[in-house]
Structure formats: C-alpha cells, structure tokens
Amino acid sequence: MITTQSEALYEKAQQLIPGGVNSPVRAFGSVGGTPRFIDRGQGAYLWDVDGNRYVDYVLSWGPLVLGHAPKAVINAITETAVKGTSYGAPTAIENDLADLVIDTVPSIEMIRFVNSGTEACMSALRLARAYTGREKIIKFAGNYHGHADMLLVQAGSGVATLGLPDSPGVPSGTTENTLTAPYNDLAAVRDLFERYPDAIAGAIVEPIAANMGFVMPEEGYLQGLIDLCHEYDALLILDEVMTGFRVGLGGAQEAYNLDPDITCLGKVIGGGLPVGAYAGKRDIMAHVAPAGTMYQAGTLSGNPLAMAAGLATITALRRPGVFDSIAEQAQKLTEGLGEIMQAQGVPVQIGQAGSMFGMYFLKEAEAHIRDYATAKQYADTARYGQFFHAMLAQGVYLAPSQFEAGFLSAAHDIETLEATLNAAESAIKQVTA
Ligand code: PMP
Q: Which domain holds residue 168?
C-alpha cells in the first residue's frame, strides 16, 4: 500500500500542529506508523490522499451513523448554508431537533445544545453542583468525558491510549472535588457516599465504558448507581455522548431501562458537525440561564448547520428498521470475528451493543476485563497494534487504539461485512504466524 502523500502531509503537519493532529489518538501513537490523511468519505468507505480505500469502523469516532456524506444530511446542510451559517439568535430548527431528541430519548424533558461532548459534560456537572449546592463529583476510572480540567482524572480515550498520567496543567484545586471509583463496583461508590454523605453533587458514568476498550455494565450496576445517588440526594449523569442513538435508538437508557437525572449527548446528534448537548428533567434544567442562574453560553451553540445535520441524521435513523439493521450488521460482525479468533486459538473478549462494538486481545485466555485495572492488565495492546496494521493494509480502518470502540453505519452491508471478515482471518494468521 502506497502512503507517500500521507507521509509528506504528516511530516509537514508535525511542524505546524502539535503531534501533527488536532486530537491525540489520530496520530497512531499506540499502534505506530503514519496516520492516513483523508481525502473523502462515502458510505461505509474512506479514501486517503494516496487513493487507498478503507471500510471505516471509526466513523469520525461515532457520529456518522448513516455513513459518510449521506444524501439527506448533505442536502440539509447545503439548503441551510445558503441561508447563512450562524445568526447568534434563536431559530425554529433548534426547536425541531430539541423536539426530536426529547421524543426519542426517554428521560429527557428539556435540552441545551452546546458544541462538543466536552462542553456537554462540563456543563452537566456545573448543573448538578448548582442544583444540589454540593461540590464533590464521582467519576469512574477509565471513563472519558472530554478534557475539562476536573474530569482529567484517571481518564480513558487518548489518556489511556498514550498511557499518560493525569495531565499537567490541571490545577490540583480543580480536581480535589473529583472522587474516583472503579467501574462496575457499586461497593466502592457506596464507600464514597458514606464518607461524604452531604457533599457529593452527583456521579457521571459512561453506560458502556467505551473509552477503555469496550466494557459492558454488569447486571444491575447502572440502576444500582442511580439508586445510590438518589439515596444520598445526589444526581446521576449518564454520559451518552457515545452511546446515544447507538446502543439503542433512545440510547443506553432505553436499552437498559434507566431514568437518569441528566444526560449528556454529542456525536450522532450533530450528524458529523460539532455538537453536544446536556439534557434532563425539567426541574433540573430550569436552573440553566436565562431560565435560572447557572450560567452557560456559546457563540455558535445551536448552530443551524449542525442542527440541520443532526435533524436529518436522527430523522433517517428513526425510520422503521434502520437502527435494527445496523445493529444486526454489528452483531454479525462480532460473531464472525469471534468465530475467526476461536478457530485460530486467539483469546479475545468481544462486546457489541446496538451499532457499537469492541474487541480486546487478551494476554491470558481466562482473563475477563471488567474495569480499567483489568483492561490495562489483560489487554494485549501489542497484538492489537499488529492486527490493526494487518487490517489497515487490507483496507479496513479500525480505531488506532485497543482502548477505543468500533462503530457501524447504515451504509455497512453484507459486502463490507464479508470483506472485513476475510481481512480479519488473513490478518490474524499473519499476526500469529
Ligand atoms: N463523553 C464521552 C463518553 C466520549 O466518548 C467523548 C469523546 N469521545 C466525550 C465525552 C467528549 O466529547 P468531545 O470529544 O466531542 O468533546
């Protein structure tokens, strides 16, 4: 595979942009090699600047649930763009997307749009603190909620991928109210509440931990968290930035029948444009300015292009059968991968929920990953790196890190499935040869 154009661009990018990228995991840091510079995407495929084609399982890290450049979304963006790109004043389309999200995600009664998942989570925590009048928060090791100072504690995603310590530049004062607990461990959360019964505003959790690989919540864990928070008059913030419109049409909360106080969204609701949102119960959201006193604002928040893209995306996704058929493809993919790995005697832990999936290569056949500690202990990142490159060379673009999830879209079909499974069989034979 020729990658000379990507190499030249990467060389230049490193002179201009720290590490050559505008978000760390893109740099292939943990798998090595040259990140592919992308020229275009269409459907399930990406083309790099050298003309190589890849079946894309990253999909811009989740947003592109209909695939690249779907007609409905591109039309919506173009029709909106000719009327202007931003007004800094309210528009009807913000109501339309708000209505659609409220109708789709069970717990949500009101919503505030922001520009990224980071902003959504940061604002959701400010709201939980404003609502409860308390300062401490609980987060879970290996969960990632964006790069706000107070959340860069035992964070997943790029922090996990690069094996970084908690980031320098974060003042200790901003994290002294961040308590951490292992994922899937209710007793640890109870301990924290017993230690600080009147000081914890809330807990923020990824319903499926998809920034340290792909770790499913154990039976009763998420409901147990909600119950514990409520027992101590704290709020549960469900971070559905990644799982929203993916684990179920109504997110993980619909799939697992949960009623969180606040929900964070991002990715899919912007259809590939920069969007986030925090949302929840009316009496809680009423604290947000200008309805209430908790301040949060944004020059480009509710941007018409982003609203149009989100609206077109969710409208298409809600058509009968669309979500289910993506989930079915994801299930076939993970079943196929499982069979291939088993036939080759390669121990893996595979997870799938709706249109998301993950596959850990395990260092020990009997290992089970259920939290960040076991992910770091048992995930064979070296083997993942080899597998990743063997797949890439055959035109399959997986996340360039063992600690990230995979995504499918409505454009992934039987053809991409077969191509991927054939590539995986040959890749794993090369890796284990
Ligand atoms: N929360 C979760 C669960 C995420 O996966 C991410 C990003 N992958 C974020 C928050 C942050 O979103 P953004 O990158 O849009 O700031």
A: 71-317
For residues 259 and 363, membership in a common domain is answered with: no
Note if 267 is an active site residue: yes
Whether 239 is catalytic: yes
Compute the average pLDDT of residues 298-325: 98
Residue 226's CATH number: 3.40.640.10
Residue ranges around ligand 1 (CB below 6 Å): 61, 116-118, 121, 144-146, 157, 206, 211, 239, 241-242, 266, 276
**Strand-strand pairing, 38-42 and 45-48:** antiparallel
Segment 350-367, tens digit of pLDDT? 999 999 999 999 999 999
Whether the CB-CB separation of 181 and 166 falls below 8 Å is answered with no
Distance 146 CA to ligand 1 centre (A): 5
Could you give the ipTM of this predicted complex?
0.99
Catalytic member of 48, 56, 239, 261? 239
Tokens of 200: 């914890």
Residue where a domain stops, chosen among 296, 317, 338: 317
Measured in Å, how far apart are the chain's first and last C-alpha atoms? 21
The reply to whether 281 and 291 lie within a common domain is yes
Query: What token pair was written down for 336?
Result: 């196929």
